[in-house]
Design a protein that fits this description.
The chain is mainly alpha-helical. Helix 1 crosses helix 9. It starts with a helix and ends with a helix.
Length: 301
């Protein structure tokens, strides 16, 4: 299946989700229930099976992807900080722009795209990229707890209890031990994994909100440029300089091209940042990514 054949159905499902909201069949609050199913059941099942089945000998080739994610995220965050400093944004708006520029939606949107285009082998690489995103989330939590409030414990708890993180660890451990989980559990997890793409995309459609974009157009534009154009260019340069090939190259680049992470809004709300600007940047970059991601996939093919 080529990238267009994969991306078009994904976009259609997102539109279906948005249509369901606009026609009052479902509401934005329903997205919260779908997200819980995705985060606590579907995605952990998908990740566990990917880690359980992966070729352990590939780890030395895949682990660098995590560090590439961190490097690209840090560079994008620095660019956003410099831009917002030049534009004299208030501190809390500046940090909202920084976190939405630095953090990737490498799991919630990245997994379905990579899985659809590159299959299970690509998903394994995407999971290791997403580990870098989780490290960025924790790092920002530590930083903001120092300069704004003593709320880091809640961020640390959220990160350490994050079900996908435990799915990675458990899958790798049982893989190392060559432990047979049996066909009943394997089939059950496979069935649950099939729910990932439709549930995530419908939830994303329900979450799309255009209010606030116009009021924050400059910040929205800058974050979208950084996330959707500059980040994949930086990732492309890094993989070229390091001589990274195989599936690692396209997966790393396309994951770096993902829009702003939904977890950025969690940080903005938790630390009382400019969450309206953060939300506008996240939603706008997500909408625009529906155009840029297919274009980047075509260039990579």
């Amino acid at each position: 299946m080529n990238s267009i054949e994969t991306i078009v159905p994904i976009i259609i499902i997102i539109i279906v989700g948005y249509f369901l909201k606009r026609t009052n069949i479902l509401s934005t609050t329903d997205a919260n229930s779908l997200n819980k199913i995705v985060i606590y059941i579907a995605v952990p099942s998908l990740i566990f099976m990917a880690m359980y089945r992966m070729d352990i000998t590939l780890l030395p080739k895949i682990i660098p992807i995590t560090f590439i994610c961190l490097f690209v995220g840090i560079i994008c965050g620095i660019l956003a900080f410099v831009f917002s400093k030049i534009r004299n944004y208030p501190d809390k708006t500046r940090w909202s722009v920084v976190i939405t520029s630095a953090m990737f939606n490498s799991g919630f949107l990245g997994y379905p795209v990579v899985l659809g285009v590159f299959g299970g082998a690509g998903l394994v690489r995407a999971i290791f990229f997403d580990m870098g995103s989780m490290i960025l989330f924790i790092a920002f939590g530590i930083f903001f707890s120092i300069i704004f409030a003593e709320k880091y414990s809640s961020i640390l708890k959220r990160a350490l209890l994050f079900p996908p993180l435990w799915a990675i660890a458990l899958g790798l451990i049982l893989n190392f031990l060559n432990f047979n989980i049996g066909f009943i559990l394997s089939n059950t997890l496979n069935y649950l994994s099939l729910a990932v793409i439709p549930l995530i995309m419908i939830s994303l459609g329900l979450s799309l909100e255009f209010k606030g974009i116009k009021e924050n157009i400059e910040a929205v534009f800058s974050v979208s440029i950084i996330k959707l154009l500059i980040a994949p260019l930086i990732a492309s340069f890094i993989v070229l300089m390091l001589g990274i090939g195989g599936l690692e190259r396209p997966v790393t680049i396309i994951e770096a091209a993902m829009p702003s992470a939904m977890l950025g809004l969690v940080l903005a709300i938790t630390y009382d940042l400019d969450f309206k600007t953060a939300a506008a940047c996240i939603f706008a970059s997500t909408i625009l990514s529906l155009v840029t991601i297919p274009l980047i996939l075509i260039l990579l093919s």
